Amino acid sequence: MGGSQSANKINFFSRHSHLWLRRRRLLKQFILLVFKTEKRKLQELNFIFCSDKFLLKINREYLNHNSYTDIITFNLSSDPTRIQGEIYISLDRVKENAVTFNNSPSEELLRVIFHGVLHLCGYKDNSKVDKELMRSKENYYLKRFQIYVSREIGST
């Protein structure tokens, strides 16, 4: 992948011993394409995969919310076109949501990852219209990622 963007700017950290995230290299490259498509430049992005308990603690401490959530996204950049952020994802919540929405855990995890990336690109999910746009973008990038992986695997 050319250009100044580097997949090394994206890091995955897990507070769990078992993280079911496949094709990490391709996912990192694709996330860079999402930022490029959304006209953003990446400085650094950290994904932290954790438990419900850990994310609830963060939700209480930093957002004053006393509820479980699947994702919390922190935009650490002062420039909206240059992305620096942290995305915390509860694997407990992802597993439960996969059952609720009849998805595989891997697909649900990808959806949540793209959801966080879209938040960093400026998309919101506070209103019904915002939620519909966010879901539409998630679906778009999920499909594009499947095509991207198929092409990359087919070319090796």
Q: Tell me how many strands there are.
A: 4
Q: Structural class, please?
A: alpha/beta
Report the uncertain regions: none
What general form does the structure show?
A: globular
Tell me the span between the first and last alpha carbons: 14 Å
Mean pLDDT: 91
Per CATH, the class reads Alpha Beta
CATH fold name, please?
Answer: Collagenase (Catalytic Domain)
CATH hierarchy: architecture: 3-Layer(aba) Sandwich
The percent range for helix content is: 40-55%
N to C succession of SSEs: EHEHEEHHH
SSE order and pairing:
Layout lengths: L9 E5 L9 H14 L3 E10 L1 H12 L7 E5 L6 E9 H10 L4 H16 L7 H27 L2
Give a verbal description of the structure:
- This protein has a single domain (7-154), classed as Metalloproteases ("zincins"), catalytic domain (Collagenase (Catalytic Domain), 3-Layer(aba) Sandwich).
- It has 156 residues and is α/β, with parallel strands linked by helices.
- Strand 3 and strand 4 (82-90) form a beta hairpin.
- Helix 3 (91-100) packs across helix 4 (105-120).
- It contains five helices and four strands.
- It has helices spanning 24-37, 52-63, 91-100, 105-120, 128-154, and strands at residues 10-14, 41-50, 71-75, 82-90.
